[in-house]
Write a structure and sequence with these properties.
3 helices; single chain
Length: 121
């Protein structure tokens, strides 16, 4: 099964709290498909994220930071770098949330939200 093989280490940048206030301290890897598949996404140190870009009105149900945080960082990276087609990036996001044991209803809601409403590359 797919896996995250190292911890997500971040620093909070309080001076930039409005946009992407978290910065990776160390590189962060996600193995697509299954560990050892050779398909590894590496998010580099210094990359900035806001985790899940959820409209404020929905924060009570799906806050920006949650069990899906690591998956959101990988998804942000894939969108920002355009290193994978958008549909594939969204499927990887769904797969990563399953690895993180995000409840099925929540991962499906988040997946369809990015499929339908996320900004295009």
């Amino acid at each position: 099964m797919s896996s995250f093989t190292n911890p997500l280490e971040l620093r909070f940048l309080d001076r930039d709290i409005k946009e992407r206030p978290f910065e990776l301290i160390t590189p962060f890897d996600y193995h697509v498909g299954e560990e050892g598949s050779g398909d590894v996404i590496t998010v580099p140190a210094g990359y900035r994220t806001d985790f899940a870009s959820v409209p404020r009105i929905f924060w009570r149900i799906i806050p920006p930071v949650g069990r899906y945080g690591k998956a959101a960082v990988v998804h942000d990276w894939l969108y920002d770098t355009e290193s994978r087609p958008r549909k594939e990036a969204d499927k990887i996001f769904l797969e990563a949330m399953e690895v993180l044991e995000v409840p099925k209803w929540k991962r499906k809601a988040m997946y369809y939200a990015v499929r339908w409403f996320a900004s295009r590359y």
